[in-house]
Amino acid sequence: MSGSYQKVRFERGGLVAEEPTGDSKLWKPLRGTSSWVTNASNNAALGLPLHDGNAGWERIPLQSKNLNPLRPDQMRAVEAWETTRSGILVMPTGTGKTEVAMHITQRVGFHTLFIAPTRALSYQLAYRLEQGFGMRVGFIGDNTFQLEPISVATYKSAALKMEHIGSYFKLLVFDECHHLGGDMILDSARMSAAPYRLGLTATPSRTRTGAPSAAEQLIGPICFEIPISSAQGSILARYGLVRVPVFLTDEEKKEYDALGAIVRNHMAERRKESPDYSWEDVARAASRDAEARHAFRARLKRRSIEDHASEKLNVIEDLIQEHTQQVIIFTGSNKMARAVSCRFLIPCLLASTMKWERERILAGYGAGDFQAIVANKILNEGIDVPKAKVGIVVGGTGSPKDATQRLGRILRKNGEETARLYEVVCKETGEEQRSRKRRQGDAYKR
Amino acid sequence: MLTKDEAIFYWQGDRIEPDRLKTQTHAHYPFLAAQMLDIYQTGAGKMRSELWEAVRSVFHGEVDCPSRRIQAFCSLLDEKSDFGGRGGSDAARKRMRVFELAAARHPLVRVSSSLLSHDENTVKAEISRQMGEAWEDIERELFSDVFELRRLRKFAGYASPEALLTRYNEAQLQACLYSATEVKIRTARDYRAIVMAAKRAMLMHETRKMPDGRMEFTFYGPAASLRVTRRYGVDIARIIPTLLACSEWEMEAPIQIRKWERLPVLKVSSSHRYQSSRELQPAFDSKLEEDFSAAWAKAGQHKWRLERESDVLFRGQKAFFPDFTLVHNTGRRVYLEIAGFWTPEYLDAKCATLKDFSGESILLAVRGNAHERFNGLGFPVVTFRKSLSPDALIPALAAFEQA
Q1: Which of A189, B72, B315, B319 meets the CB 3.0–4.6 Å disulfide criterion with B6?
Q2: Which residue in B has a C-alpha nearest to residue A322's C-alpha?
Q3: CA-CA distance, B181 to B190, in Å (whole number)?
Q4: A409 vs A22: which has the higher pLDDT
Q5: Gap from A287 CA to chain B (nearest CA, Å)
Q6: What angle do CA A141, A66, A238 make, to 5 degrees?
């Protein structure tokens, strides 16, 4: 049987053969040649024409002594995955997804690639894997290409490089796998021949029709799920939510209202001619017509006034004086994050923050050297912030997914203390509405 | 190159066209371009966000100007600018020091409500003293590594306002191709340059000789057999500056903006008079070939003339592009193929190609001991070590003369 497989080879993200093997419907003629080609991800479905003997994947002895022992629910997740070795685990933030993935990696014991949404998360993952397995971990992304038996990549770099490394890994771990979507990003899964696939997410994407999502098609079905409500209290800390309204200063209010008038006048003017004229139309027209552009800018400026309202800095000042615990502040923009950082001289994490700086900030925060840090949206997902018990959200978007992730950040169980989340919102502005939307997510229901 | 978010195109029915600034319709653009160049030429020391704001103000009140166009100009100006490398380490180290000094005095407040808090201004003054720098200077540098806050060091510039507009048009044509699924190029000349550019972009190609004698190349990415994909659009776009520098060509590319069944097509030809931002480079594959060409020119007195822009050989659908053509006084043509750096896969591929062209007057020059691989093909093989000297070819060429 293996004789007929010998001619199958991995080539730039596909499997190429002189003759189709297995299900012939999966093969297509390779342009300009007499050969046949199929997506490398079909390797398992075709009965592994690329297997331990002819693929680049190799056994790696991994010890488990540096790994934390699993709780019973984590163990059930591992066992659920092992029945098919291709599937998605749905676990809320803070329930130890990464621990589960590391145990699975250790039990599989072959070349493994971890894929994470952002550089920040990839670096953190690489760090944890190095600690856990006591070995050098490769990194692909951020202008780096270091391939090791265990490597970490961002989704984008994985998609770009998979055509060259797709036969090297036997196990792919998709962290925050709801990010697997979009023609290009899908190549990170499609161009790999790995038969074992693990997806991890707190917020799985569901299709409207109930059909399998792209992630389910390329990784496998959801095989284990715990809802956030059952995690809270047992695994996550209890939390309290406090809303702090702030008002614009007179000067800010004046400018805010003036900008509002520009927007309203523009809308009124245009609606005389076309009554359906909407915000989408303004955005579209902004590219062509100077007036719409003016209105569009005015709206952006209004948002920015909300975001940077000086009263917010005063509220932050009050809150960090009130709490002796460590505080983490979330902002809606890089600019506000820097403003907070400059005002209180506390470290600031942005998407662009370099690896060593990020590590030093998080290590310093973990050790208690820094009482407070400020971050833009990047900390929404999966970045571990040890010991944070007080969160302050200033500005941000109205997406419930963000809110879930933010709560997960500060709700890590740590003794019996109650975690607290403050939301600082401008009164009488559009921000109030966004805050309400944010509170509709599952995480805010009590 | 521009980002996807800076691309502007218009489509009508089956056709798609990138944004293009023309002398007739955009007569005042050289004037705007001159202002933009001036902003950057006098902008050393300014932050990127300030420069961009200034560029935006050049377009203030400009009607019929998409904001993407303005952003594209900012990018093209940045393309020729030096904002310092990612050398943000200095700024990052500095701010880490500041935060560490401040950590012991946390929290910094203006109105104290707790015994544990510290006055903001006092702490900042203390830190400034400890670091031996005025606080204003520290604050100014604190985030100087952030993209929009980086300061312009040097602007290499464009030769003229018109050169900036030329580059704009070229860049928009490239950006339109980012969503291309493949590209067809038909040409009567300059194939070598085009094929070389495609090779550098790691594209695959098919070649066809057309009834009118022109050649048609189809360039696409390796995944093209499996699905319609724009994955290689950016690679396809890379061949544009070369193509625009060529003459007498036509290009056709289906563009996938949405998942439509029939994709709109971008059609451009040399008659559109696009200009390239680049000169057509002599199409050498490597330094080795360049050196050989120079050595041949220096040696001079041979009976054979060396041609760079070489012939293309056809066997059915397959085409072979030898590195050079040697033309004898009598008109006899011998093709020279040089294998300098090689890997086993490369040699296999080369042997497979050459096998299809047995019987042609091909002379192989092979570095090192790889010549054994080529022995069975029936072509004369010359080996060399470091560089290929013209003299080494003479005996083999003499054999062709007598044949």
Answers
A1: B72
A2: B114
A3: 23
A4: A22
A5: 4
A6: 85
Query: Would you give the distance in Å from CA B81 to the centre of its chain?
Result: 17
Q: Are residues B340 and B386 in the same domain?
A: yes
Same domain flag for B232 and B380: no
Nearest to B99 among A12, A293, A345 (CB): A345
**Is some CB atom of chain A closer than 8 A to the CB atom of B383?**
no
Q: Is B137 found in the same domain as B149?
A: no
CB A219 within 8 A of CB A199: yes
**Are residue B265 and residue B390 in the same domain, yes or no?**
no
Predicted TM-score (pTM) above 0.95 = no
* Total number of residues shown for chain A: 446
Considering the domain architecture, whether residues A195 and A127 belong to the same structural domain is answered as yes
- Alpha carbon distance A56, A65 (integer Å): 27
Q: Are A161 and A192 in contact (CB under 8 A)?
A: no
Distances (CA, A) of A341 to A14, A329, B143: 48, 10, 10
Instruction: Name the residue among B61, B113, B146 with its Cβ closest to that of A321.
Output: B113
Q: How confident is the model at residue A387 (pLDDT cuts 50, 70, 90)?
A: low
Max mean pLDDT range (A31-40, A224-233, B348-357): A31-40
Task: Encode pLDDT of B267-320 as tens digits.
Answer: 999 999 999 988 776 556 667 788 888 888 888 767 888 887 667 787 765 678
B/e letters for B57-87, b = 16+ CB within 10 Å, e = fewer, are ebbeeeeebebbbbbbbbbbbbeebebeeee
Which of A116-125, A139-148, A361-370, A406-415 has the lowest average pLDDT? A406-415
Whole-angstrom Cα distance, residue B401 to residue B403?
Answer: 6
Residue A18 forms contact with B (CB below 8 Å): no
Contact of B319 with chain A, judged by CB distance below 8 Å, is answered with no
Q: Are B149 and B196 contained in the same domain?
A: no
pLDDT category at B352 given cuts 50, 70, 90 is confident
| Cα(B118)–Cα(B107) distance, integer angstroms | 6
| Exposure class string for B267-288: b at 16+ Cβ within 10 A, else e | ebebeeebebbeeeeebbbeeb
Q: Is A163 part of the contact surface with chain B (CB cutoff 8 Å)?
A: yes
In this structure, the answer to whether residues B261 and B332 fall within a common structural domain is no
Own/partner pairs for B114-120, CB < 8 Å, 24+ apart?
A: B114/A321, B114/A322, B116/A321, B116/A324, B117/A321, B120/A343
Looking at the fold, whether B155 and B183 belong to one and the same domain comes out as no
Residues in chain B with CB shorter than 8 Å from the CB of A191 are 223
C-alpha–C-alpha distance, residues A227 and A297, integer Å? 41
The continuous run of DSSP H or E covering B236 comes out as helix B233-237
Question: Which pair of structure tokens corresponds to residue A84?
Answer: 């098919």
- A317 chain-B contacts, CB cut-off 8 A: 107, 109-111
Angstrom CA distances, B18 to A138, B194, B266, B268, stand at 41, 21, 8, 10
Q: Which backbone phi and psi does B147 adopt, to 5 degrees?
A: -45, -55
Amino acid B173 reads L
Model confidence pLDDT, tens digit, residues A30-62: 887 778 999 999 999 999 999 998 899 999 988
Closest CA to B80 of B108, B40, B51: B40
Number of other CB atoms surrounding residue B365 within 10 Å: 23
For residue B124, which residues of chain A lie inside 8 Å, CB to CB?
345
* Of A181-190, A367-376, B181-190, B311-320, minimum mean pLDDT range: B311-320
* Candidates A286, A338, A352; nearest CB to B67: A286
Q: What's A187's domain CATH number?
A: 3.40.50.300
The residue in chain B having the minimum alpha-carbon distance to the alpha carbon of residue A361 is B96
Chain A hits for B95, Cβ within 8 Å = 341, 347
Give me the residue from A37, A334, A354 closest to B226, CB to CB: A37
Q: What is the DSSP string of A143-179?
A: TEEE--SEEEEEHHHHHHHHHHHTTT-SEEEETTGGG
Which structural domain range is residue B215 located in? 178-281
